[in-house]
Design a protein that fits this description.
Helix content of chain B: under 10%
Strand content of chain B: 35-45%
Order of helices and strands of chain B: EEEEEEEEE
Oligomer: heterodimer
Number of helices of chain A: 0
Number of strands of chain B: 9
Distance between the termini of chain A: 40 Å
Chain lengths: ~120, ~110
């Protein structure tokens, strides 16, 4: 059974940093791309970033480019999102999502999400 | 403003057939697979349709997807009260080099 478990969310001040983690199990982690998708309170889904199975290719939404860094440790079956220079507009539930195959394909499994609140 | 356009709301009575549309462009829907997700209140999105018209195991055949040119549709037949949820379309955009979502359609079962 595929499982994705996010952690690392919490309350952070504007301009601060936070690192999210996503522990994956139930599939061969290194064979699949994974992404971060967020949802602001009461709003729709917004793709944040994606990374290939090998980790060599990364992609970012314009809204986070230069501030967020996606990475993965295939030896630990774990996905990360380093978030710097956080803004109020980054407040959202952040979901980790496994791709069907490559990063250009959609997500077939999602974690339950972790809430990030940026506020003073 | 979402790259993919969905109507904000849709409604139907139990047993009816409802269609939710998703409009894009040649750089996204026109050249990539479309995926549909169902999100019940307070829960994570769930995959309903992948690769335009394929259903994952466990998804009832009341749900079907189609794609034509730069538009896609999700049809729900035999509407049930538990279908009341938000529905999102998604695909890859070659120009943006990123995934794009529709703004979501809130389905109400009257």
């Amino acid at each position: 059974e595929v499982q994705l478990l996010e952690s690392g969310g919490g309350l952070v001040q504007p301009g601060g940093s936070l690192r999210l983690s996503c522990a994956a199990s139930g599939f061969t982690f290194s064979s699949y791309a994974v992404s971060w998708v967020r949802q602001a309170p009461g709003k729709g889904l917004e793709w944040v970033s994606g990374i290939s199975g090998s980790g060599r290719s990364t992609y970012y939404a314009d809204s986070v480019k230069g501030r967020f860094t996606i990475s993965r440790d295939n030896s630990k079956n774990t996905l990360y999102l380093q978030m710097n220079s956080l803004r109020a507009g980054d407040t959202a539930v952040y979901y980790c999502a496994k791709a069907e195959t490559t990063v250009t394909t959609g997500s077939d499994y999602w974690g339950q999400g972790t809430l990030v609140t940026v506020s003073s | 403003q979402s790259v993919l356009t969905q109507s904000p709301s849709a409604s139907g009575t139990p047993g009816q057939r409802v269609t939710i549309s998703c409009s894009g462009s040649s750089s996204n829907i026109g050249s990539n697979y479309v995926y549909w997700y169902q999100q019940l209140p307070g829960t994570a999105p769930k995959l309903l349709i992948y690769r335009n018209n394929q259903r994952p195991s466990g998804v009832p055949d009341r749900f079907s997807g189609s794609k034509s040119g730069t538009s896609a549709s999700l049809a729900i037949s035999g509407l049930r009260s538990e279908d009341e949820a938000d529905y999102y379309c998604a695909t890859w955009d070659d120009s943006l080099s990123g995934r794009v979502f529709g703004g979501g359609t809130k389905l109400t079962v009257l």
